[in-house]
Amino acid sequence: MSTPVDATATGPASAGPAGPETPEANRVSHPVRPGRWLAAGVTALILAWLGWTIAINPNLHWDIVVKYQFDRVILEGLWVTVQLTVASMAIGVVLGVVVALMQVSDSRVLRAGGMAYVWFFRGTPLLVQLIFWFNIALIFPEIGLGVPFGGPKLMTWETNTLVTGFVAALLGLSINEGAYMSEIVRAGLRAVDPGQQEAAAALGMSRRKIMTRVVLPQAMRIIVPPTGNQFISMLKTTSLVSVIAGADLLTVAQRLYLTNFEVIALLIVASLWYLVLTTVASIGQYYLERRFSRGFGATVPGGLRGRIGRNLRFPGSVR
């Protein structure tokens, strides 16, 4: 006959149910990191010193900066910069999609053409391309429409009249951007599981519908972030058109400081506007990325996220 076991004699194993959790139990202890505190203090000291030095430096002529920050000429150049950026990116995205589709095509001729386009325009400096387009009249004094291979021309235009500084800048920026965008789009297309394309084909969908309804919507999640970076980079890259008198923000700032010799002050004016443009574009990129990232990654419940601490990041969660 078995002997009953005393519950009080079993030691820790017989402990009763745990009581309610206290706030101290959920609190995450953070180790003391003196190196981090030291680095943060040194960084704050350097930033404070730089700000103080810039603010009191009489050679920066802050009164000139304030005077020209909203000057009509500066704002006109700013508008040209915005136009160049938006138009160049729009054309570049279209070219990039077309060239990317050429590169993933089954046709060897189309693949070779797409690869040659990327090889040439991504392999030569953008500044060289801008100067080339600005001097295209040296090669083709006239641009016309007519029968190719020496046939009669229906209409002609003088190249110097047609290809202005703005047009040359637009050609150089957009065609160069198309080469980079094609690689971004191609990477997004390759990232989509081929099994989904096979399943769509098994359902009787055409290649065009598979691309527009299955592949591209999923590829956008990968294409959008680098495209936003390209747009921000394009805002600053437009400053290169100052070498061909493109009438952009930097060009008008240079024209002004060549007349009043306030070089640093007007460069600060241009830099502040570039910072404003890139900041606005960065905010737009953030919300656009979050929009296309919906439905991907796991979401951590708010209570659990609070328990495990703020230093841990989870895919798909918004901090």
From TrEMBL:
Residue span of region Disordered: 1-29
Membrane topology, record value: Multi-pass membrane protein
Protein name as catalogued: Amino acid ABC transporter permease
Organism expressing this protein natively: Micromonospora fulviviridis
Listed PANTHER family: L-CYSTINE TRANSPORT SYSTEM PERMEASE PROTEIN TCYL, MEMBRANE COMPONENT OF AMINO ACID ABC TRANSPORTER
InterPro entries, sorted: AA_ABC_transptr_permease_3TM, ArtM/GltK/GlnP/TcyL/YhdX-like, MetI-like, MetI-like_sf
Start-end of Low complexity biased regions: 7-25
Domain ABC transmembrane type-1: 78-285
Entry's family note: Belongs to the binding-protein-dependent transport system permease family.
The keyword Membrane appears for this protein: yes
Transmembrane region(s): 37-57, 77-104, 116-140, 160-180, 263-288
Coiled coil: none
Compartments reported by the entry: Cell membrane
UniProt keyword annotations, A-Z: Amino-acid transport, Cell membrane, Membrane, Transmembrane, Transmembrane helix, Transport
Main location, first listed in the record: membrane
Record PROSITE patterns: ABC_TM1
Signal peptide residues on this chain, from the entry's feature table: none
NCBIfam families the record matches: HEQRo_perm_3TM
